Amino acid sequence: MEIIKSDTHFNFVSLMKPAIFVSVAFILIGIASIVWHSGLNYGIDFAGGTLVQIKFHKETPTNRIRDALKMINLGSSIIQPFGLNEVIVRIAQSSTNDQDPSVRIKDALGAALGQGSFEIRRVEVVGPKVSKDLTRKAILAVIFSWIGILVYVGIRFEFRYALGGVMALLHDVLVTVSAMALLNKEFDLNIVAALLTIIGYSINDTIVIFDRIRENSRKNMKMALSDVVNLSVNQTLSRTLLTSLTVFMVLLILFFFGGAVIHDFTFAMLVGTVAGVYSTVFIASPLILAFERIKPSKIRLKRGK
Questions:
Q1: pTM summary value
Q2: Residue 3 has pLDDT above 70, yes or no
């Protein structure tokens, strides 16, 4: 099945510079948002503290919940709506005392709203040492994935292919994080899992195009490399769109009907899927041409190209 014929002649290489400009502009806006918000909106995994998820049996205004919790002085706590008639109360590590915060919250809400009007559905406590360790491991996981892909693609193809692929993956991660920052989405371990999934998905699509570029480069030694890149991307465009649209539709359904628990995860995956297709077509493949101009491949040097 082909939604786009393999003999199309879109000039993707000519759009490399505008595409890079758009990507850099979006990433810079995301960085500015992170600075504006004094950092990412870290979840309890990275920020530490206590998270309490409360389910109310009927609709309860957030202001009424906040007023009920004022008497127990939770410090810089955050009350966030979560699903239908549910809220999450986030309590900073420094604002807790010796008593279990969930017990204090239960007593305060019981006194103000009645003991039978709600239920505590989840309590998570992460200490400062654990949160720092999780942050460090999350960063290392993403970095090691880049290094592993750099080594694999460098061995499987050439080092210039590896650099192009990893730069495209870096682009996908930065675009996803920027989108999370702009919308102030919570950044937790689920988002790290989404980033690692995006990296694996994106490099798979990139390698398919790289393989076609290498194949066409050997078949058409007299053809300019820019034309080889365009030819290869056009030949694989239908496959790229079919696989990406399939994933995108599933993620879209999960985003709207999967519930609040996986809402941020599916949002990150949606952004990453789109960014992955974009970077594969407009960044990773044309970058091979840029690296070729700096250091021509050995095969083309031998044949006078």
A1: 0.81
A2: no
